[in-house]
Amino acid sequence: MLTIQSHSYHRSQYIHSANAVSGYTYGQINSVKEYFGLRAKNEELAKENARLKELLFNKKDTILEGNATPPGFLSDFKVIQAKVIKNSYSKQENYLTLDRGNLKGIKGDMGVISDRGVIGIIDKTTKHFATVISILHTNNPMNGKIKNSNHFGSLTWDGKSTGYVQLIDVPKLATLKKGDTIVTGGQSFIFPENIPVGKIDKIFIDKSTNKFVINVRLFNDMTNLGYVYIIENKKKREKEILEAATEKDADKR
């Protein structure tokens, strides 16, 4: 200490070394702060993605003139961001748990997707949580179609691989090939049409129905899920009431 205090060179070297140590320490502290700040940043990005998806799902095919936006133009679909806090994928009937519930407007029969594609359908909710019937569920059929040909079928899971689901009941008239994209169909009001599901991997013929059975490789890695998006179709109830009334009238005839 006497040497450092009495010689300017030694004093400058000490100060330089001390600054280097403190600078390194502050750098490490800042890195830790940035690491723990990633969660907040990811949350903000997920919220922004939800907003953009809501705009996308409500986009019409027609182009509006000028800046005019008709009433209800962006009212069909609502998108709510959530995070997966529990995920099963090794059972025959798999479920996920989300960190959002009915306080955020989440209800049963809402569709759940990620940035890559379909995840499942909301099953039950509490104030703060919701469970999701996974696409990896042997008793949870969904409507799907071949993107290039618009032929429809039912998306099911045979309970074997977490990376694949099956599109069944596709007519043999359908034009399809390996690598074609499978998306959600327009027959269900749970999901908007054309949400990605996966790509055709293998094609079989079901001898009992004489229809195609398609093995679909999922875009999602169902074993590694983070933020997801819940889709509310605000016109779903209207459609259900109309179809129920139509079926009731048909039964009377």
From TrEMBL:
Descriptive protein name: Cell shape-determining protein MreC
InterPro entries: Cell/Rod_1, Cell/Rod_MreC_2, MreC, MreC_beta-barrel_core
Swiss-Prot/TrEMBL GO biological process terms: regulation of cell shape
Family: Belongs to the MreC family.
NCBIfam families in the cross-refs: PRK13922.9-3
Record domain Rod shape-determining protein MreC beta-barrel core: where: 84-232
PANTHER family with a match to the protein in the record: CELL SHAPE-DETERMINING PROTEIN MREC
Lineage, highest ranks first: Bacteria, Pseudomonadati, Bacteroidota, Flavobacteriia, Flavobacteriales
Source organism, top-level taxon: Bacteria
Assigned keywords, A-Z: Cell shape, Coiled coil
Alphabetical list of Gene3D superfamilies matching this protein: Rod shape-determining protein MreC, domain 1 (2.40.10.340), Rod shape-determining protein MreC, domain 2 (2.40.10.350)
Recorded GO CC terms: plasma membrane
Coiled-coil annotated spans: 35-62
Gene: mreC
